[in-house]
Protein backbone atom coordinates (compact mmCIF):
# COMPACT_ATOMS: atom_id res chain seq x y z
CA UNK A 1 0.00 0.00 0.00
CA UNK A 2 2.88 2.35 0.83
CA UNK A 3 4.63 1.54 -2.46
CA UNK A 4 1.44 2.23 -4.38
CA UNK A 5 1.07 5.61 -2.64
CA UNK A 6 4.67 6.50 -3.51
CA UNK A 7 4.08 5.61 -7.16
CA UNK A 8 1.02 7.85 -7.27
CA UNK A 9 2.96 10.77 -5.79
CA UNK A 10 5.79 10.60 -8.34
CA UNK A 11 5.55 13.35 -10.94
CA UNK A 12 5.56 12.11 -14.56
CA UNK A 13 8.94 12.68 -16.19
CA UNK A 14 8.04 11.97 -19.81
CA UNK A 15 9.93 8.67 -19.76
CA UNK A 16 6.67 6.86 -19.07
CA UNK A 17 5.09 8.23 -22.26
CA UNK A 18 4.89 5.60 -24.98
CA UNK A 19 5.88 6.52 -28.52
CA UNK A 20 4.04 4.89 -31.43
CA UNK A 21 6.12 2.67 -33.69
CA UNK A 22 5.85 5.24 -36.50
CA UNK A 23 7.32 7.94 -34.18
CA UNK A 24 4.81 10.61 -35.19
CA UNK A 25 3.68 13.00 -32.44
CA UNK A 26 0.59 15.27 -32.41
CA UNK A 27 0.99 18.14 -34.87
CA UNK A 28 1.99 20.92 -32.40
CA UNK A 29 4.56 18.66 -30.71
CA UNK A 30 5.81 17.42 -34.08
CA UNK A 31 6.52 21.02 -35.18
CA UNK A 32 8.38 21.73 -31.95
CA UNK A 33 10.34 18.49 -32.27
CA UNK A 34 11.34 19.32 -35.86
CA UNK A 35 12.96 22.54 -34.63
CA UNK A 36 14.54 20.74 -31.67
CA UNK A 37 15.91 18.07 -34.03
CA UNK A 38 17.36 20.63 -36.46
CA UNK A 39 19.07 22.53 -33.67
CA UNK A 40 20.64 19.35 -32.27
CA UNK A 41 21.84 18.25 -35.73
CA UNK A 42 23.19 21.73 -36.50
CA UNK A 43 25.80 21.30 -33.77
CA UNK A 44 27.50 18.38 -35.56
CA UNK A 45 26.55 18.96 -39.20
CA UNK A 46 29.42 21.40 -39.95
CA UNK A 47 31.99 18.86 -38.72
CA UNK A 48 30.33 16.05 -40.71
CA UNK A 49 30.31 18.16 -43.88
CA UNK A 50 33.94 19.15 -43.30
CA UNK A 51 34.77 15.47 -43.01
CA UNK A 52 33.14 14.94 -46.43
CA UNK A 53 35.32 17.68 -47.94
CA UNK A 54 38.46 16.03 -46.54
CA UNK A 55 37.43 12.62 -47.92
CA UNK A 56 36.70 14.10 -51.35
CA UNK A 57 40.14 15.71 -51.47
CA UNK A 58 41.79 12.43 -50.43
CA UNK A 59 39.76 10.50 -53.03
CA UNK A 60 40.83 12.92 -55.77
CA UNK A 61 44.45 12.71 -54.68
CA UNK A 62 44.31 8.90 -54.75
CA UNK A 63 42.69 8.90 -58.21
CA UNK A 64 45.37 11.28 -59.46
CA UNK A 65 48.04 8.95 -58.08
CA UNK A 66 46.46 5.82 -59.63
CA UNK A 67 45.50 7.31 -62.99
CA UNK A 68 45.60 10.95 -64.13
CA UNK A 69 43.08 10.04 -66.85
CA UNK A 70 40.59 8.92 -64.17
CA UNK A 71 41.23 12.10 -62.14
CA UNK A 72 40.51 14.18 -65.25
CA UNK A 73 36.97 12.72 -65.25
CA UNK A 74 36.37 12.85 -61.50
CA UNK A 75 37.57 16.29 -60.38
CA UNK A 76 34.44 18.17 -61.53
CA UNK A 77 31.96 15.87 -59.72
CA UNK A 78 34.22 15.97 -56.65
CA UNK A 79 34.22 19.77 -56.78
CA UNK A 80 30.39 19.81 -56.99
CA UNK A 81 30.13 17.61 -53.89
CA UNK A 82 32.65 19.79 -52.04
CA UNK A 83 30.66 22.93 -52.89
CA UNK A 84 27.47 21.32 -51.56
CA UNK A 85 29.33 20.32 -48.38
CA UNK A 86 30.45 23.93 -47.85
CA UNK A 87 26.86 25.09 -48.45
CA UNK A 88 25.67 22.62 -45.78
CA UNK A 89 28.21 24.05 -43.33
CA UNK A 90 26.96 27.59 -43.98
CA UNK A 91 23.30 26.56 -43.59
CA UNK A 92 24.03 24.82 -40.28
CA UNK A 93 25.94 27.79 -38.85
CA UNK A 94 23.28 30.44 -39.61
CA UNK A 95 20.11 30.15 -37.52
CA UNK A 96 17.97 31.97 -40.10
CA UNK A 97 18.94 29.44 -42.79
CA UNK A 98 18.66 26.37 -40.57
CA UNK A 99 15.20 25.39 -41.78
CA UNK A 100 16.94 24.26 -45.00
CA UNK A 101 19.49 22.11 -43.17
CA UNK A 102 17.88 18.73 -43.85
CA UNK A 103 17.32 19.63 -47.51
CA UNK A 104 20.97 20.67 -47.89
CA UNK A 105 22.12 17.46 -46.17
CA UNK A 106 19.95 15.34 -48.45
CA UNK A 107 21.24 17.17 -51.53
CA UNK A 108 24.84 16.54 -50.40
CA UNK A 109 24.17 12.82 -49.86
CA UNK A 110 22.48 12.50 -53.27
CA UNK A 111 25.36 14.29 -54.97
CA UNK A 112 27.87 11.85 -53.44
CA UNK A 113 25.81 8.83 -54.54
CA UNK A 114 24.88 10.00 -58.03
CA UNK A 115 28.32 11.32 -58.94
CA UNK A 116 29.76 7.94 -57.93
CA UNK A 117 27.27 6.19 -60.24
CA UNK A 118 27.99 8.61 -63.08
CA UNK A 119 31.77 8.31 -62.79
CA UNK A 120 31.60 4.52 -62.41
CA UNK A 121 29.68 4.20 -65.68
CA UNK A 122 32.23 6.29 -67.62
CA UNK A 123 35.56 5.20 -66.21
CA UNK A 124 37.19 2.11 -67.70
CA UNK A 125 39.58 0.97 -64.98
CA UNK A 126 39.98 -2.25 -62.94
CA UNK A 127 39.08 -0.31 -59.76
CA UNK A 128 36.11 1.51 -61.27
CA UNK A 129 33.67 -0.76 -59.40
CA UNK A 130 34.73 0.94 -56.13
CA UNK A 131 33.14 4.18 -57.31
CA UNK A 132 29.71 2.56 -57.01
CA UNK A 133 30.37 2.10 -53.28
CA UNK A 134 29.75 5.83 -52.90
CA UNK A 135 26.05 4.97 -52.63
CA UNK A 136 26.74 3.06 -49.40
CA UNK A 137 28.88 5.94 -48.16
CA UNK A 138 26.14 8.44 -49.06
CA UNK A 139 23.56 6.44 -47.08
CA UNK A 140 25.90 6.37 -44.08
CA UNK A 141 26.53 10.09 -44.48
CA UNK A 142 22.83 10.84 -44.64
CA UNK A 143 21.72 8.64 -41.73
CA UNK A 144 24.69 8.56 -39.35
CA UNK A 145 26.61 11.81 -39.81
CA UNK A 146 24.11 14.38 -41.06
CA UNK A 147 21.14 12.76 -39.27
CA UNK A 148 18.46 13.40 -41.87
CA UNK A 149 14.99 12.62 -40.38
CA UNK A 150 14.13 8.92 -40.51
CA UNK A 151 11.43 9.05 -43.18
CA UNK A 152 13.56 11.32 -45.36
CA UNK A 153 16.43 8.86 -44.92
CA UNK A 154 14.23 5.89 -45.93
CA UNK A 155 13.00 7.64 -49.06
CA UNK A 156 16.49 8.87 -49.94
CA UNK A 157 18.06 5.43 -49.43
CA UNK A 158 15.51 3.71 -51.68
CA UNK A 159 16.04 6.35 -54.37
CA UNK A 160 19.83 6.00 -54.19
CA UNK A 161 19.68 2.20 -54.38
CA UNK A 162 17.30 2.41 -57.34
CA UNK A 163 19.69 4.80 -59.10
CA UNK A 164 22.59 2.44 -58.29
CA UNK A 165 20.71 -0.55 -59.73
CA UNK A 166 19.98 1.38 -62.93
CA UNK A 167 23.59 2.49 -63.22
CA UNK A 168 24.95 -1.03 -62.68
CA UNK A 169 22.53 -2.41 -65.24
CA UNK A 170 23.70 0.11 -67.86
CA UNK A 171 27.40 0.00 -67.02
CA UNK A 172 29.45 -1.86 -69.68
CA UNK A 173 32.28 -2.51 -67.24
CA UNK A 174 30.40 -4.33 -64.44
CA UNK A 175 29.27 -7.96 -64.77
CA UNK A 176 26.08 -9.24 -63.17
CA UNK A 177 27.78 -11.02 -60.25
CA UNK A 178 29.72 -7.93 -59.20
CA UNK A 179 26.63 -5.78 -59.65
CA UNK A 180 24.70 -8.11 -57.33
CA UNK A 181 27.46 -7.88 -54.70
CA UNK A 182 27.47 -4.07 -54.88
CA UNK A 183 23.68 -3.95 -54.55
CA UNK A 184 23.74 -6.28 -51.55
CA UNK A 185 26.43 -4.17 -49.88
CA UNK A 186 24.32 -1.04 -50.41
CA UNK A 187 21.21 -2.77 -49.06
CA UNK A 188 23.11 -3.98 -45.99
CA UNK A 189 24.53 -0.51 -45.43
CA UNK A 190 21.05 1.01 -45.81
CA UNK A 191 19.35 -1.44 -43.44
CA UNK A 192 21.92 -0.99 -40.67
CA UNK A 193 22.09 2.79 -41.09
CA UNK A 194 18.31 3.19 -41.12
CA UNK A 195 17.90 0.95 -38.09
CA UNK A 196 20.45 3.05 -36.22
CA UNK A 197 18.71 6.24 -37.37
CA UNK A 198 15.33 4.88 -36.20
CA UNK A 199 16.69 4.07 -32.74
CA UNK A 200 18.47 7.44 -32.50
CA UNK A 201 15.38 9.41 -33.48
CA UNK A 202 13.21 7.39 -31.12
CA UNK A 203 15.55 8.15 -28.22
CA UNK A 204 15.73 11.81 -29.22
CA UNK A 205 11.94 12.05 -29.34
CA UNK A 206 11.72 10.43 -25.92
CA UNK A 207 14.24 12.97 -24.60
CA UNK A 208 12.23 15.77 -26.20
CA UNK A 209 9.03 14.57 -24.51
CA UNK A 210 10.83 14.36 -21.17
CA UNK A 211 12.11 17.93 -21.56
CA UNK A 212 8.64 19.09 -22.57
CA UNK A 213 7.03 17.49 -19.52
CA UNK A 214 9.72 18.87 -17.21
CA UNK A 215 9.21 22.34 -18.68
CA UNK A 216 5.50 22.09 -17.90
CA UNK A 217 6.35 21.01 -14.34
CA UNK A 218 8.72 23.97 -13.95
CA UNK A 219 6.06 26.35 -15.29
CA UNK A 220 3.42 24.94 -12.95
CA UNK A 221 5.87 25.09 -10.05
CA UNK A 222 6.72 28.71 -10.87
CA UNK A 223 3.00 29.60 -10.93
CA UNK A 224 2.44 27.77 -7.64
CA UNK A 225 5.39 29.59 -6.07
CA UNK A 226 3.96 32.93 -7.16
CA UNK A 227 0.61 32.01 -5.59
CA UNK A 228 2.31 30.89 -2.37
CA UNK A 229 4.44 34.04 -2.30
CA UNK A 230 1.32 36.14 -2.73
CA UNK A 231 -0.43 34.22 0.04
CA UNK A 232 2.60 34.64 2.30
CA UNK A 233 2.91 38.41 1.80
CA UNK A 234 -0.69 39.60 1.25
CA UNK A 235 -3.32 40.07 3.93
CA UNK A 236 -6.29 37.90 3.02
CA UNK A 237 -8.93 40.25 4.42
CA UNK A 238 -7.92 43.65 3.06
CA UNK A 239 -5.74 42.77 0.07
CA UNK A 240 -2.90 44.91 1.47
CA UNK A 241 0.56 43.58 2.15
CA UNK A 242 0.88 41.79 5.45
CA UNK A 243 3.64 42.56 7.94
CA UNK A 244 6.09 40.17 6.32
CA UNK A 245 5.52 41.66 2.88
CA UNK A 246 5.74 45.17 4.30
CA UNK A 247 9.13 44.55 5.90
CA UNK A 248 10.51 43.05 2.70
CA UNK A 249 9.27 45.87 0.46
CA UNK A 250 10.32 48.63 2.87
CA UNK A 251 13.83 47.21 3.31
CA UNK A 252 14.18 46.87 -0.45
CA UNK A 253 13.03 50.46 -0.93
CA UNK A 254 15.36 51.87 1.70
CA UNK A 255 18.39 49.75 0.76
CA UNK A 256 21.42 51.99 0.44
CA UNK A 257 19.78 55.20 1.63
CA UNK A 258 22.37 57.25 3.43
CA UNK A 259 25.23 55.26 1.84
CA UNK A 260 25.85 57.07 -1.40
CA UNK A 261 22.22 57.80 -2.15
CA UNK A 262 21.53 54.51 -3.95
CA UNK A 263 18.23 53.92 -2.13
CA UNK A 264 14.91 55.74 -2.27
CA UNK A 265 13.90 58.65 -0.03
CA UNK A 266 10.64 57.36 1.44
CA UNK A 267 7.91 58.58 3.77
CA UNK A 268 6.10 56.26 6.17
CA UNK A 269 2.52 56.88 7.33
CA UNK A 270 1.21 54.77 10.20
CA UNK A 271 -2.50 55.06 10.97
CA UNK A 272 -5.18 53.21 12.88
CA UNK A 273 -8.95 53.44 13.18
CA UNK A 274 -10.09 55.47 16.18
CA UNK A 275 -11.88 53.43 18.85
CA UNK A 276 -12.02 50.33 16.67
CA UNK A 277 -12.56 48.03 19.69
CA UNK A 278 -15.74 49.95 20.49
CA UNK A 279 -16.77 49.63 16.83
CA UNK A 280 -16.49 45.82 17.06
CA UNK A 281 -18.36 45.79 20.38
CA UNK A 282 -21.15 47.91 18.89
CA UNK A 283 -21.58 46.41 15.41
CA UNK A 284 -19.96 42.97 15.66
CA UNK A 285 -16.79 41.48 14.24
CA UNK A 286 -18.25 40.86 10.79
CA UNK A 287 -19.08 44.55 10.45
CA UNK A 288 -15.61 45.27 11.81
CA UNK A 289 -14.07 43.23 8.99
CA UNK A 290 -16.11 45.14 6.44
CA UNK A 291 -14.96 48.41 8.02
CA UNK A 292 -11.32 47.30 7.73
CA UNK A 293 -11.76 46.43 4.06
CA UNK A 294 -13.48 49.73 3.30
CA UNK A 295 -10.87 51.81 5.13
CA UNK A 296 -8.00 49.90 3.48
CA UNK A 297 -9.41 50.57 0.01
CA UNK A 298 -8.92 54.37 0.40
CA UNK A 299 -5.08 54.48 0.70
CA UNK A 300 -4.81 51.78 -1.94
CA UNK A 301 -6.76 54.01 -4.32
CA UNK A 302 -4.75 57.11 -3.40
CA UNK A 303 -1.27 55.64 -3.90
CA UNK A 304 -0.05 56.27 -7.45
CA UNK A 305 3.66 55.40 -7.63
CA UNK A 306 4.90 52.00 -8.75
CA UNK A 307 6.91 51.64 -5.54
CA UNK A 308 4.22 52.98 -3.19
CA UNK A 309 2.38 50.36 -1.16
CA UNK A 310 -0.13 49.86 1.64
CA UNK A 311 0.28 47.24 4.36
CA UNK A 312 -1.80 46.00 7.26
CA UNK A 313 0.59 46.44 10.14
CA UNK A 314 -1.61 44.66 12.66
CA UNK A 315 -5.25 44.61 13.76
CA UNK A 316 -6.76 47.97 12.79
CA UNK A 317 -3.35 49.54 12.17
CA UNK A 318 -2.16 50.22 8.61
CA UNK A 319 0.99 51.57 7.02
CA UNK A 320 1.39 53.57 3.81
CA UNK A 321 4.86 53.89 2.27
CA UNK A 322 5.41 56.60 -0.33
CA UNK A 323 8.61 56.35 -2.36
CA UNK A 324 10.69 59.40 -3.25
CA UNK A 325 8.35 61.71 -1.32
CA UNK A 326 9.22 64.73 0.81
CA UNK A 327 7.76 65.30 4.26
CA UNK A 328 5.59 68.13 2.93
CA UNK A 329 4.04 65.94 0.23
CA UNK A 330 3.57 63.11 2.70
CA UNK A 331 1.64 65.43 5.04
CA UNK A 332 -0.60 66.54 2.17
CA UNK A 333 -1.28 62.88 1.39
CA UNK A 334 -1.96 62.08 5.06
CA UNK A 335 -4.47 64.92 5.48
CA UNK A 336 -6.18 63.92 2.24
CA UNK A 337 -6.38 60.32 3.47
CA UNK A 338 -7.80 61.34 6.84
CA UNK A 339 -10.43 63.54 5.17
CA UNK A 340 -11.46 60.90 2.62
CA UNK A 341 -12.04 58.28 5.32
CA UNK A 342 -14.04 60.70 7.46
CA UNK A 343 -16.13 61.57 4.40
CA UNK A 344 -17.04 57.92 3.93
CA UNK A 345 -19.56 58.50 6.68
CA UNK A 346 -19.33 55.01 8.17
CA UNK A 347 -21.47 55.21 11.35
CA UNK A 348 -19.55 54.79 14.60
CA UNK A 349 -21.77 55.26 17.64
CA UNK A 350 -19.00 54.09 19.97
CA UNK A 351 -16.52 56.81 18.96
CA UNK A 352 -15.75 59.63 21.36
CA UNK A 353 -14.52 62.05 18.69
CA UNK A 354 -17.10 61.70 15.91
CA UNK A 355 -20.26 59.92 14.86
CA UNK A 356 -18.44 58.37 11.93
CA UNK A 357 -15.27 56.29 11.50
CA UNK A 358 -12.08 58.38 11.70
CA UNK A 359 -8.35 57.67 11.76
CA UNK A 360 -5.26 59.05 13.43
CA UNK A 361 -2.00 59.23 11.46
CA UNK A 362 1.69 59.44 12.33
CA UNK A 363 4.09 60.54 9.56
CA UNK A 364 7.86 60.40 9.22
CA UNK A 365 10.21 60.96 6.30
CA UNK A 366 13.54 59.17 5.85
CA UNK A 367 16.52 61.41 6.53
CA UNK A 368 20.18 61.19 7.44
CA UNK A 369 19.11 60.97 11.09
CA UNK A 370 16.85 57.96 10.58
CA UNK A 371 16.91 55.94 7.37
CA UNK A 372 16.42 52.29 8.33
CA UNK A 373 13.06 50.52 8.45
CA UNK A 374 12.91 49.88 12.24
CA UNK A 375 13.84 53.50 12.97
CA UNK A 376 11.21 54.89 10.60
CA UNK A 377 8.50 52.63 12.00
CA UNK A 378 9.43 53.62 15.56
CA UNK A 379 9.24 57.34 14.70
CA UNK A 380 5.94 56.94 12.85
CA UNK A 381 4.53 54.98 15.81
CA UNK A 382 5.60 57.71 18.21
CA UNK A 383 3.94 60.36 16.02
CA UNK A 384 0.77 58.24 15.87
CA UNK A 385 0.81 57.91 19.66
CA UNK A 386 1.01 61.70 20.00
CA UNK A 387 -1.85 62.17 17.49
CA UNK A 388 -4.06 59.85 19.52
CA UNK A 389 -3.05 61.58 22.74
CA UNK A 390 -3.93 64.97 21.26
CA UNK A 391 -7.55 63.95 20.66
CA UNK A 392 -7.42 61.56 17.64
CA UNK A 393 -8.79 62.21 14.12
CA UNK A 394 -5.68 64.18 13.27
CA UNK A 395 -2.20 63.98 11.68
CA UNK A 396 1.05 64.19 13.64
CA UNK A 397 4.54 64.07 12.20
CA UNK A 398 8.13 63.65 13.27
CA UNK A 399 10.29 66.55 12.09
CA UNK A 400 13.88 66.20 10.87
CA UNK A 401 14.99 67.44 14.30
CA UNK A 402 13.23 64.50 16.00
CA UNK A 403 10.29 66.49 17.44
CA UNK A 404 6.64 65.52 17.06
CA UNK A 405 4.30 68.22 15.81
CA UNK A 406 0.62 68.33 14.86
CA UNK A 407 -0.59 69.27 11.42
TrEMBL record:
The keyword Transit peptide does not apply. Keywords: Membrane, Transmembrane, Transmembrane helix. Its EC number is 2.7.7.65. It holds the Pfam family GGDEF. It catalyses: 2 GTP = 3',3'-c-di-GMP + 2 diphosphate. Signal peptide: none annotated. Residues 264-400 form the GGDEF domain. The chain crosses the membrane at residues 44-66, 78-95, 101-120, 150-168, 180-200. The keyword Membrane applies. It is an enzyme of class 2 (transferase). This is diguanylate cyclase.
Amino acid sequence: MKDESQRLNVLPSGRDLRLPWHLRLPAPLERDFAEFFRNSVAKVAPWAALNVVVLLVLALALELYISPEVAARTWRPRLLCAMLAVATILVARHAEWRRWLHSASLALAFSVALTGDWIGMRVDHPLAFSLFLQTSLAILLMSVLLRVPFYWAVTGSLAMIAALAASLHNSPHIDHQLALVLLLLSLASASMSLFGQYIYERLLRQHFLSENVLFQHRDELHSANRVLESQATVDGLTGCLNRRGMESRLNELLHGFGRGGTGERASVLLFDIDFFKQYNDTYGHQAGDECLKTVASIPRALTQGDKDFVARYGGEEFMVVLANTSLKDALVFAERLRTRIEQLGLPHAGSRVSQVVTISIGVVCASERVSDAPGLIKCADEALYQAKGAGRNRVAYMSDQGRVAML
